[in-house]
Amino acid sequence: MMLLFKILAGLALLVFASLLSLLFEGVDRIFHARMQLRIGPPLFQPFYDVLKLLGKENIVPRRAVAWAFNGAPWVAAATALMVFLYVPIGSLPPILGGEGDLILIMYLLGFSAVAMAVGGFASGSVYANIGAQREMVLMMSYELPLATVVVSMAWFAYRTGMPGAPFSLETYVAMPIWSVAGWTGIFGILALLVTLLFVVPAETGKVPMDIAEAKTEILDGLICEYSGRNLAMFKMAFSLRTLAMCAVVVSLFFPWSLGRILNLSGMAFFVVDFLFFWVKVFLVQVVGVTVIRTTFGRLKIWQASRLYWYQVAGLALAGMVLLSLDVIL
Amino acid sequence: MAIGAGKTYKVPIGPVHVGLKEPITAWLDVDGERIVNATIRPGAIHRGIEFMARERNPIQVIYLAERICGICSFSHIVAFVRAVEDAAKIPVPARAQYIRTIVLELERIHSHILWAGVACYTFGYDSAFHLGMILREKVMDVLEALTGNRVNYGTGTVGGVRRDITPKVEKALREMIAFYKSEFSFFYNVAVDDPVALARMRNVGVLSKEDAISHCALGPTARGSGLRVDLRWSAPYEAYADLDVKPVVPQDYTGEAYGDVYDRFLVRVLEVYQSLDIIEKCLDGLPEGDLMWEPKLPKLLNYLKQADGIGMCSIEAPRGDDTHAIKLTGGEENVTWWKVRAPTYSNAVSWPIMFKGNDVADAPLIINSIDPCISCMERMLVTDVRKGSKQVVTRAELLQSCREKTRRLMGA
Predict the structure, then answer these.
(1) Is A300 within 8 Å of B362 when comparing Cβ atoms?
(2) Which domain holds residue A44?
(3) Which of A35, A136, A300 to mutate to test the interface with B (most CBs of B within 10 A)?
(4) N or C end: fewer C-beta atoms under 10 angstroms in chain B?
(5) pLDDT beyond 50 at A45
(6) Closest approach of A192 to chain B, Cα-based (Å)
(7) Rounded to whole angstroms, what are the CA distances from B386 to A41, A51, B390?
(8) In sequence order, which residues have a C-beta less than 8 Å from that of residue B56 and are 6 or more positions away?
(9) Quick one: pLDDT at residue A26?
(10) Which stretches of A160-265 are DSSP H helices?
(11) By the CB < 8 Å criterion, does A264 face chain B?
(12) DSSP character for B191?
């Protein structure tokens, strides 16, 4: 009975997340356009795009490795989608809570990026090849600050004795990490938050880190050869990764529950928190993705790499040191 | 990324590429992300315009010359009519020379703003691109008020110009100057002072001073490399002799000329301000007098038919020296031969040097750092989602509404 419930709830959540990610992308495009004094596309344009692509012919280039080329988009989308099974949505515990934690989420996001790169390498196109190389280099660059953030937070949660497993997202949702930290700790957490916000554009493939898909340089790079169903899957994977990344940021740093503040109980508590969670995700996406991609141009791969290895990793280490000081003092 | 492994593969940029506005192919030998060598393959859009001119008289060729390029159409016809005037020894009234100067500078403003926007778009900075397009509308409106058209103005003719600057147009021009003097600094801040823009353009596509000289770079490309070359300064034509035009070189502003894309960007952005000053001076000193040496077209054509000789003219177009040479044979109505040398001919030679040692990511930016182009639409579909109606606007209707707007702008 429990298993059946889990499967049904999981399916419902995955469908909901897919639709919401496309909706948020539509809002992102409108906000982006308005900030540039344009009108922008209709709100549901990403839905139209995906639906149209699903009905289009799927072309596999002659030089492509067919199984890898066709498989990559599905793996990329599926792994990005699976993240939502391990993220607590508001006050609802994650559907597969006990079976995976932050490390698994990082792996799933990383796996999704690798699947995209595999698809690019399998395309047999020189542009896709360059795009895939860039995606791999970019991944290697942002994984260090990302891992530093996760490890520092877990270590801090462990040492301060926050209830729950240190790597489980539920721990951070049950008790905001800000509340256990002293002054140095708060600055440390702020540094980690900024680090994570730096990683968001790279993880989601948006300007200034859309280097692997640079349209005006390498013609959409690793998705250059994709069409039809496969491209629709890649589009889904991109919006799902954006949503998943923002959901992780919210769970780690902005876990406050509106239901608890309003002293709600029962069904209303869960519903309000569920909606409030997505509002927070939306705000993070607007700040971390939309505003950033309107404000900046695209970096080159070595510039992005250098940024992540020196400045952003430095910031993450600073956050780590501040958190350690907080624990030691 | 096997940098330094000595194994290269070929990447074609163009002829059709998102980052490029003109069909040109650059075959890049790439090692990882680094460009080792580059081969330029032009020839995708040769139209035989010079050949077509041989079946037309000089007045007809003006309209052909206008269509060589969509951006610097007036530069081409000024160079052409000056070549004809040179061959047929036709003096041009002073007022016409001033009006030509004003239109040339308006065209330079619109070309440079368009270019700056497209350059930003090339490195993914879409916001600056859209800002540039919004700012450019003002000069397009003024050009339309002055000449009746946005792109091919049809304003120059042999021995003068066909449109006068009326008090209303003068007011529009002064308004435009005030608008740009206050608003263009915003684009300057957004694009020139942007850290990402600096990171993307500094030390990219470097053309040293020596290479610029030996490879005959022209216009903003040469000035970006620190060469003081500007025909408006070294060989003034039209009204430029009365004005004091100094070449804009980056070392005067930043202390050093790098010769990279950023310097070319800077030169163009600063030249917009220079053009505004030139237009202001032209308006202040606009002499009274005739617009044309010979307003009656048949008389002019008869005179041109008798003319015999070779004429040449070189002017500073927005992208560099535009040279036209023409031969008229006495008794022949048509142009005997006509040779156009657009600045891109010269500047394209420098591409392989600029490419060397840069990244693949820079390739479209380097190509664009010399010259972009854009084409126009003639049909559009108007849809009303709420009413569910659709209406195709035909060419005739577009023309009609376009004329109405022109009349409105001209205040008639």
Answers:
(1) yes
(2) 2-328
(3) A300
(4) C
(5) yes
(6) 23
(7) 15, 22, 11
(8) B64, B334, B335
(9) 92
(10) 169-174, 177-180, 183-204, 215-218, 228-253, 258-261
(11) no
(12) I
Architecture in CATH for domain B49-368: Orthogonal Bundle (1.10)
Strand partners, B320: B317
pLDDT (tens digit, 9 = 90+) per residue, A285-294?
888 888 888 8
Chain A residue whose CA is closest to B358: A300
Which residues from A are below 8 Å from B17, CB to CB? 219
A202 Cβ neighbours under 8 A, 6+ residues apart: A138, A141, A142, A209, A304, A308
Whether B123 and chain A come into contact, CB under 8 Å, resolves to: yes
Mean pLDDT across the stretch A127-135? 85
- Of the given ranges (B58-72, B122-136, B339-353), which has the lowest mean pLDDT? B339-353
B208-226 pLDDT per residue, tens: 888 888 888 888 888 888 8
Comparing CB atoms, the residue among B11, B125, B362 nearest residue A297 is B125
pLDDT digits (tens, 9 = 90+) for A104-113: 888 888 888 8
For residue A209, give the DSSP letter.
S
Give A217's contacts in chain B (Cβ within 8 Å): 19, 122, 360-361, 363-364
**Could you please report the per-residue DSSP string of A261-288?**
HTT--HHHHHHHHHHHHHHHHHHHHIII
- What's the pLDDT tens digit per position in A295-318? 888 888 888 888 888 888 888 888
How close, in Å, is residue B405 to chain A by CA atoms? 22
List helix spans (H) across B160-260: 167-187, 195-201, 209-214, 219-224, 231-234, 251-254
- Find the residue in A nearest to B11 (Cα): A126
With CA atoms as reference, the chain B residue closest to A215 would be B18
CA atoms of A246 and A87, how far apart (whole Å): 11
ipTM for the predicted complex comes to 0.77
Smallest Cβ–Cβ distance between A216 and the set B10, B11, B124 belongs to B124
Nearest to A245 by CA among A283, A213, A281: A281
Chain-wide mean pLDDT for chain B? 81
Give the range among A135-149, B328-342, B365-379 with minimum mean pLDDT.
Answer: B365-379
Please state, in angstroms and rounded to a whole number, the distance separating the CA atoms of residues A315 and A303: 17
Check if B186 contacts A (Cβ < 8 Å): no
Q: Note whether B306 contacts A: Cβ–Cβ < 8 A.
A: no
Encoded tokens for B132: 């540039």
- A311 touches B: beta carbon within 8 Å: no
